[in-house]
């Protein structure tokens, strides 16, 4: 029996993560789909109804039909070669495992499932979105002295900088992680998204710094 680890994309409910922001990990006891900020899902063998190739409209990959109430019913791992991947999952013994799980594995799965799939506290996510939009709105209304001939002013720059610092703080500050992430979640659950956010906002800030105010 071989453990597998596959990188791809994912669709969880209405959210969509492109390659390489999702990782599927399967062994005899647990199937984990980590799609970074859009969801971290853990399944025990008894949680799975079936795993089947997803439809053309849903995207090439595998659809994970499950019975976990706190997760969206639509869980798709996007990758090529769906039939081969299903065969590899079967080879791990996961789909046919009826044994009692080790206590620590059972406890970890239960902890993650009770917290739902979204790794960030809703209060933190809402606060981030509100601050981001208020800064851009204030910028457009001229509260930061934006000139009419400039596409982005200081308010927009501040919004972009705050997004960069938000991601950086999650990576390096344990108190900030406790404030933002749900209990039991770690930086590993969202690290690919944070690095991507820092890359994009960092490039934007460098580009904007070359434009005079």
Description:
With 213 residues, the chain is α+β, with helices and mostly antiparallel strands. The protein folds into two domains: 111 residues, Pleckstrin-homology domain (PH domain)/Phosphotyrosine-binding domain (PTB) (PH-domain like); 88 residues, no CATH class. 40% of the residues lie in helices and 21% in strands. The chain is built from six helices and seven strands; from the N terminus they run βββββββαααααα. It has a seven-stranded antiparallel sheet. Helix 3 packs antiparallel against helix 4 and helix 4 packs antiparallel against helix 6. The longest helix is centred in the middle third of the chain and has 19 residues. The termini are far apart. The model has no long low-confidence stretch (mean pLDDT 89).
Distance between the termini: 61 Å
**Low-confidence residue ranges:** none
Mean pLDDT: 89
| Overall number of domains | 2
Class derived from helix and strand content: alpha+beta
CATH topology of the largest domain: PH-domain like
Number of helices: 6
Radius of gyration from the alpha-carbon trace, in angstroms: 20 Å
Oligomer kind = single chain
Give the helices and strands as they follow along the chain: EEEEEEEHHHHHH
Q: At CATH's second level, what is the architecture of the largest domain?
A: Roll
Please summarize the sheet with the most strands: 7 strands, antiparallel
Q: What is the percent of helical residues?
A: 40-55%
The gross shape turns out to be: elongated
Tell me, what is the CATH class of the largest domain? Answer: Mainly Beta
Strand order of the largest sheet: 4-3-2-1-7-6-5
At the fourth level of CATH, the homologous superfamily of the largest domain is: Pleckstrin-homology domain (PH domain)/Phosphotyrosine-binding domain (PTB)
């Amino acid at each position: 029996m071989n453990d597998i680890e596959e990188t791809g994309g994912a669709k969880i409910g209405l959210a969509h993560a492109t390659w390489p922001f999702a990782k599927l990990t399967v062994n005899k006891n647990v199937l984990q789909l980590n799609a970074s900020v859009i969801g971290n899902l853990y399944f025990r063998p008894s949680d799975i109804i079936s795993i089947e190739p997803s439809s053309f409209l849903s995207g090439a990959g595998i659809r994970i039909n499950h019975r976990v109430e706190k997760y969206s019913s639509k869980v798709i791992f996007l990758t090529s070669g769906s039939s081969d991947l299903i065969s590899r999952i079967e080879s791990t013994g996961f789909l046919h495992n009826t044994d009692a799980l080790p206590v620590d594995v059972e406890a970890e799965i239960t902890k993650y499932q009770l917290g739902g799939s979204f790794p960030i506290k809703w209060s933190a996510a809402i606060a981030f979105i509100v601050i981001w939009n208020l800064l851009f709105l204030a910028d457009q209304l001229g509260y930061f002295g934006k000139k009419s001939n400039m596409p982005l002013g200081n308010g927009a720059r501040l919004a972009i900088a705050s997004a960069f610092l938000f991601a950086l703080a999650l990576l390096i500050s344990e108190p900030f992680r406790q404030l933002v992430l749900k209990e039991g979640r770690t930086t590993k659950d969202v690290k690919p998204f944070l690095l991507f956010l820092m890359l994009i906002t960092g490039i934007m800030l460098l580009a904007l710094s070359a434009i005079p105010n």
